[in-house]
Amino acid sequence: MITKKQIFVMSATAGISVANIYYNQPILNDIAKDLNVSHLAVGNLPTFSQVGYGLGLFFVSPLGDKMDRKKLIIILHVLLGLSLLGLAFISNIFVLYILSLMAGLFAVSAQVVIPMAASMSGKDKGRVVGTIFSGLLTGILLARTLSGYITDWFDNWHVIFGFSALLVFATIFFISKTLPNMEPHFENSYFSLLKSSIYQLKRFSLLRRNTLLIATTFGIFCSFWTTLTFKLSQAPFNYDSDVIGLFGVLAVAGAMLAPYIGRLSDKINANGIKLISVLMIILSVLLIKVFDTNLYAFIAATLLLDIGVQAIQINNLSQIYGLDEKAHSRINTAYMSSMFVGGSIGTFIGVLCWEKGGWDLVTLQLLTLAIISLGIITYSYINKNVVITVN
User: Fold this and answer.
1) How confident is the model over 370-389, as pLDDT tens digits?
2) Is the bond leading into 46 cis (omega within 30 degrees of zero)?
3) Tens digits of per-residue pLDDT, 236-281?
4) pTM
5) Which of 107, 111, 278, 318 lies 20 to 30 Å from 70, alpha-carbon distance?
6) Percentage helix, strand, coil for the chain under 3-state DSSP, each rounded to 5
7) How many CB atoms lie within 10 A of CB 276?
8) What is the DSSP letter of 185?
9) Do the beta carbons of residue 376 and residue 212 sit within 8 Å?
10) Per residue in 100-116, pLDDT tens?
11) End-to-end Cα, the chain, rounded Å
12) Quick one: angle between helices 258-265 and 270-290, nearest 10?
């Protein structure tokens, strides 16, 4: 049975790992000015981080079913720390692309931790997964605040990556002392493991629907947070990176609700919760589209969007981790890979929309994805009695 100490260490590990994908978002303007490159060029940094994370999800995280998860997490943290040290010293945009890709690839240890926690949790999967995901989401959101403040304090965007490297290396000690070694469930070849990960999508119709939903909603999430930096740095706001990073603190309030959402997902109809969540996302987009110069509209929209996306994620995870305990890592791979592909596409399209049509085109893109998400939820609700298909 999983202990409170293990839950805390796993939550911190997930948050510290995944934060590295998001440190660059609130300081994109600082990086662009320092390297003398365009918004489009520097906007590719979050895309490379997310693509790397997606590659890690597909090619690395399935190894959690084939090897000791504790050993895998430690290896990934060593490689992540080394990648961050590179980001702390390099100033060439093309090398930064490569290092961002590598940091995203090795930050995937967060997605080894979550199925590990689900395997250790017994009947309280929703509560435990919700708590671990709360740590992960807090890492995502506080990454922006921490990055903005450290960059503004030291007047150097490299410092945040050196600081993060120290955190990553420190977690290795706590992982080695706290988490148990776990016997793998999969004994076939690595290629068979990857093939089996894809097969989980064919195997479970519920997984297919949840995967499609999270790809679109996470695309909204990533597009919003990337383009928000550009919007808030211009008139009438004209905020520096430290103030922009404060928006991450707003969203942490939503992250604190994750354990409670997890408990609800163990008891209440998940599709009903997800329907309300998508409506919250649509309302958030309408607020920042109609009241695009109002600070309070952006504050409210940030809270609504983050709580909505988080509620969808927690309910999705609670559902898919109940499908097959022996295939947790492979199911997680199929789900999370699709999620970060959606996030990468959302980020890329969001930056492109900003370059071509400004905030109006960005919010139109966000609203389009939100309406698609509503369609997916509606279809899932209509077909709620069809849970799995096994071939």
Assistant:
1) 999 999 988 877 766 444 44
2) no
3) 999 987 788 788 777 776 666 655 665 665 566 677 788 889 999 9
4) 0.76
5) 318
6) 80, 0, 20
7) 13
8) S
9) yes
10) 999 999 999 988 998 88
11) 33
12) 140
